[in-house]
Specification:
With about 425 residues, the chain is an alpha/beta fold. The chain contains 17 helices and eleven strands. Helix 3 (about 35-45) packs across helix 11 (about 280-305).
Length: about 425
């Protein structure tokens, strides 16, 4: 999915001490300037408060592809002609160095802005960096998922682990001193399950694992975001459609003379006369999530020929008109996807079970004992994170203790590139 304090206070929550208390950062000294969690989620951090990181031209990096399915294109409809191999990005140092995997958030590809920001941070600190797409992204579903039905966290972890092992084999000459793992949003939840799997398989023996703004209870988080997509939009006393939102963006872009959309520009946009109000920002965040879910719904249904969105006998190729199918998929939120596609698949393997039972198995609650007793895993989150529900922060405090840092502001992942946060991330991985 999107502040100057005492550094010692921030780092205390990430160091593996014996205190049972999570670190809570004082809002009066934190210094992050955006108090509205919706605006923080959209705009991120003002450029002058971000760390100094290498420019793209100073990073030795390339995009690669990994083929994982022996049947390749035979298993996919023609419309997914570019989905037979999984793309990823590797930035490598000149000599031996630790390697960190970054798992992207819901529906996101490996090359999205947050993954890029984290890559530059860690590369600048001397790490090899591998950027991975989310198991819920189109490219991962088509090229790397064994079921083409993401959402079963343990199975998604197995798919991710297979990808990581494939990348390790593909770059056998890369000199790696030790392995680390991080993920943001849903990618943070994925990271916890991957770390748990690695305890048995030990291909990487991850030294440190950092979860950034993870969901605790998966259905609670997606329900929170779905409610945002249904927010009643009112601008200047009139009901507003998304056409009006994009009209405002268009006027701003016309004044600026460019149409690049990144967090720096969105922060600038929110400081202009065209700024979005809180209900509009909420709806924009929720709708962006809803579009990501629609992509999952459509792709999973079509590959598995379930007939819920796409007629099983219809041939889909380059010329197929997809708008009607996307509209139908967009009408199905994540809970709908879970009930219609995820739950039946899980029930077939478990000989039954309810949606609440499934949710328990795919959320952090399933790993509570492991997470409580594994000192190498830490969490950074925000008190105003949009995806957290009642009791979620309490669960994190009870489970992680001093390995949890709770920042007072930042919304959902909005402060990941704030200097205080990035300094704390680097200190955690340095141990």
């Amino acid at each position: 999915m999107l502040r100057l304090t005492s550094l010692a206070a921030v780092l205390a929550g990430l160091l593996l001490t014996t205190s049972a208390q999570a670190t809570r950062i004082d809002a009066s000294t934190y210094g992050y300037p955006i108090s509205n969690p919706f605006e923080a989620t959209i705009s991120g951090t003002p450029p002058n408060l971000r760390p100094s990181v290498p420019a793209d031209e100073d990073i030795e990096q390339s995009d690669y592809r990994l083929s994982l399915h022996a049947d390749g294109a035979k298993r996919l409809p023609d419309i997914f002609w570019n989905g037979t191999s999984l793309p990823y990005r590797l930035a490598q140092q000149d000599g031996p160095a630790p390697l960190i995997f970054i798992i992207a958030g819901t529906g996101s590809a490996y090359s999205t802005g947050t993954a890029e920001s984290l890559k530059k941070l860690f590369y600048g600190a001397g790490y090899h960096v591998v950027q991975l797409s989310s198991p819920t992204s189109y490219d991962f579903i088509t090229a790397a998922s064994t079921s083409a039905t993401p959402g079963i966290s343990s199975e998604d972890a197995q798919d991710l682990y297979r990808v990581m092992e494939g990348i390790k084999a593909q770059h056998g000459d890369l000199q790696v001193t030790d392995y680390h793992l991080t993920g943001y949003s849903l990618g943070a939840l994925n990271a916890a399950f991957v770390s748990h799997l690695d305890e048995q398989r030990k291909s990487f023996n991850f030294k440190r694992v950092l979860m950034l703004n993870p969901p605790v209870d998966l259905l609670t988080s997606v329900d929170n975001l779905d409610r945002l997509s249904r927010a009643q939009l009112r601008l200047q006393g009139q009901s507003a459609s998304f056409d009006l939102i994009f009209d405002k963006l268009a006027r701003y872009f016309k004044d600026k003379g460019r149409i690049e959309i990144d967090q720096a520009l969105l922060y600038d946009f929110q400081d202009s006369k065209e700024r979005l109000n809180t209900p509009t920002m909420a709806a924009l965040i929720g709708s962006a999530f809803r579009f990501s879910v629609a992509d999952i719904v459509f792709t999973s249904d079509l590959i598995n020929r379930r007939g819920l969105i796409t007629p099983p006998q219809q041939q889909f190729n380059y010329g197929t008109e997809l708008t009607p199918f996307f509209q139908k998929a967009a009408a199905c939120n994540f809970r709908c996807y879970a009930e219609q596609q995820l739950l039946p698949m899980w029930q077939a393997k478990q000989a039954g079970g309810s949606l609440p039972e499934l949710n328990q198995q795919v959320s952090l609650h399933a790993l509570e004992s492991y997470l409580k007793n594994t000192p190498k895993i830490a969490v950074m989150t925000n008190a105003d994170d949009l995806i957290l529900g009642p009791g979620d922060l309490s669960f994190l405090r009870q489970t992680f203790g001093p390995r949890l840092s709770v920042y007072p502001l930042g919304g959902h992942c909005g402060n990941l590139d704030y200097r205080v946060n990035t300094d704390a991330m680097l200190e955690f991985f340095r141990g």
